[in-house]
Amino acid sequence: MYIIINNKIMFKNKHLLINIILLAIIALLAVYVFIKNINFETKNPYYAVFLRSGDMYFGKLSRFPKLTLSDVWYLQVTTQEDQQAGFNLAKFTNTVFGPQDKMEINKENVVWISKLSNDSQVVSFILQSEDSALQNAQPQATLPALEE
Question: Does this model's pTM top 0.70?
Answer without folding.
Answer: no
